[in-house]
Amino acid sequence: MVTVPDTKTTGAAAPNAAKIFTARTSLGAQLLRRKPIGQLTEEAGGSQGGPKLVRSFGVLQLTMISVGATLGTGILVILGESVPLAGPAIWISFVIAGVAALLSAVSYAEMAGLVPVSGSSYSYAYATMGEGVAWICGWCLVLEYAVSVAAVAVGAGQYVNETLAAFGQSLPEALSQPPGDGGVVNVPAVVIVVLAMLLLVRGAKESAWINTAIVVVKVGILLFFCAVAFTAFNGGHFEPLMPMGAAGVSAAASRVFFSYIGFDAASTAGEEARNPKRDLPRAIMLSMLIVTSIYVLVAVAAIGARPWGWFDGTEAALVQILEETTQQPWIALVFAVGAVLAIASIVLTVLYGQTRILLSMSRDGLVPSVFGRVSQRTGTPVAGTLIVGIAVAITAGLVPLGALADATSIGTLFAFALVNLAVIHLRRNRPELPRTFRVPLYPLTPVLGTLMCAYLMANLGADTWLVFGAWMLVGAALYFGYGRRNSRVAALGEDDYRDLINRASSPERVKAETP
Q1: What is d(CA 94, CA 74) in angstroms, rounded to the nearest whole number?
Q2: Which residues of 6-19 are buried (b: 16+ CB within 10 A; e: fewer)?
Q3: Which residues of 201-240 are buried (b: 16+ CB within 10 A; e: fewer)?
Q4: What pLDDT is stored for residue 4 in this prediction?
Q5: Do residues 120 and 357 lie in contact, with contact meaning Cβ atoms separated by under 8 Å?
């Protein structure tokens, strides 16, 4: 077996190997170098030595990680910003975004069964399209996960104030809003991120059970909202259905796609699942069904209770609907407390996913090794979790929601498109690999998934594209400044690399990977 050398631990031999590679191989060749699936799974199993992540998750915990990272974001945080774009047709925007997410979700399900490791779509891209595309995907995932955590946490200030209002109190705007929205720092957002960070440091199993409990509460309060809102339902609020036209519905769909970010969080738990090849695809598909159904139901209930113009500029819209409908402040209080817990659940699970993505990238030498250090005591990447948590807390406290939400969506859509392409690539080039889940209606489904992602990206504003372009330039600078010189796959000589690829493609290896 050819083992990818660890450039962080092999002493003087590693730099020499890197120099030999640099002298013989062009940048283009390095960008196309793939990391075989077998190598990814071996490293996930701890064959390289050192502490490894603990396998403790079943299908329930994996599903709850996915639901916890997804459910609530668009409904609880950005409903007031998306309804003015689509009008009463906001529920159609949720359906469009849900279809786009579902098309990518089935591709994620197939890839999660094939590559059950912590890297999610980053690892899928590395195994299929090479280091260059993998780096781009990984950098997009940093944008998706870290920035979405900050974006969701920003909304916490609104619901904390709604909770305090029941007692005649409120946080001063300087401490509940970021600078761009008239404040100084969003303290509730910072506090929620820090608490999630400390819980993740303690242990993944404990975090998963707490998340499961919070998800049950979250689903309960959203269903409770629907029950109350339907008592004030007015069908006239849906006329005209599309006051801003189809373009408005599409624009809202691109924005509320942010609400579906998170279903892929289950795929980042590939190394902590007891039976990842079986349970990851099930968890991803089940979570998408739960989330989409609840989103559409809540959107219809909210528009039925209030005309679409009422949502413009409204913060914590669902709480206000409950309070105005029931005239009972305690009901709004209960919902606001549940909403804060729901936001905390999203922050917890998405922050979890971010640390696991960086762990995989560190294992490959593309980011500093500190992100890949797993604690012997807790079985978690403690140092990486602390670094990410502090960076996200600062972002959540200082950056407004709107800019964060759109930037997150474009990074996510790009990563999702790559996963669809990875399915097509492996079906064409490695049809013999055992698959515990297969994308239905192949190749139509992944092709449509790619096109749908491209369509939603095209509907995002020019400012968002400029932010995305700047983010990619920063990523390119980091790759050339660090990743290119420290890549473990790049440290292999040409003969060793070819031997690694040939061994990974051998019939014996494929048979060994059969579940």
Answers
A1: 9
A2: bbbeeeeebeebbe
A3: bebbbebbebbbebbeebbebbeebbebbeebeeeebbee
A4: 52
A5: yes
Residues in the chain with pLDDT values less than 50: 1-2, 7-24, 47-49, 507-515
- Using alpha carbons, select from 80, 120, 113, 90 the residue that is nearest to residue 412: 120
Measured in residues, the chain has a length of 515
∠ CA 181-186-192, nearest 5°, is 140
* Segment holding 294, helix H or strand E: helix 276-305
Which residue type does 316 have? A
Burial label, 242 (beta-carbon count in 10 A; 0-12, 13-18, 19+): middle
Question: For tokens 């400390």, what's the residue?
Answer: 198
Q: In this structure, are residues 286 and 63 in contact, taking their beta carbons and an 8 Å threshold?
A: yes
| Dihedral over Cα of 71, 77, 81, 84: its sign | positive
According to the 3-state scheme, what is the secondary structure of 412-445?
HHHHHHHHHHHHHHHHHHCCCCCCCCCCCCCCHH
Unique residue bearing structure tokens 């809540």: 298
How confident is the model over 200-238, as pLDDT tens digits? Answer: 888 767 777 888 888 888 888 889 989 999 998 998 999
Report yes or no: 423 and 439 within 8 Å, Cβ to Cβ.
yes
Nearest C-alpha neighbor of 393 from the set 241, 171, 110, 196 = 196
pLDDT value of residue 499: 80
> Could you tell me which residues are beta bridge partners of residue 506?
none
466 Cβ contact list (under 8 Å, min separation 6): none
What CA–CA distance (Å, rounded) separates 251 from 230? 27
Amino acid of residue 428: R
Amino acid code (one letter) for 377:
R
Please give the Cα distance from 117 to 36 (Å, whole number): 12
The predicted-structure confidence for 247-301, as pLDDT tens digits, reads as follows: 889 888 877 877 777 777 777 777 777 787 788 888 888 888 888 889 889 989 9
Q: 72, 75, 137: which is closest to 108 by C-alpha?
A: 137
Outline where 230-275 has alpha helix (H).
Answer: 245-256
Round to whole Å and give the CA distance between 332 and 310: 18
- What distance lies between CA 489 and its chain's CA centroid? 26
Neighbour count for residue 41 (Cβ, 10 Å)? 22
Q: Cα 148 from chain centroid?
A: 8
Task: Provide the 10 A C-beta neighbour count for residue 164.
Answer: 15
What's the confidence (pLDDT) of residue 53?
A: 67
114 token code pair: 């094939």
d(CA 37, CA 44): 11
**Do 310 and 320 touch, CB atoms closer than 8 A?**
no
What are the angstrom distances between the C-alpha of 87 and each of 33, 235, 241, 455?
Answer: 48, 14, 7, 20
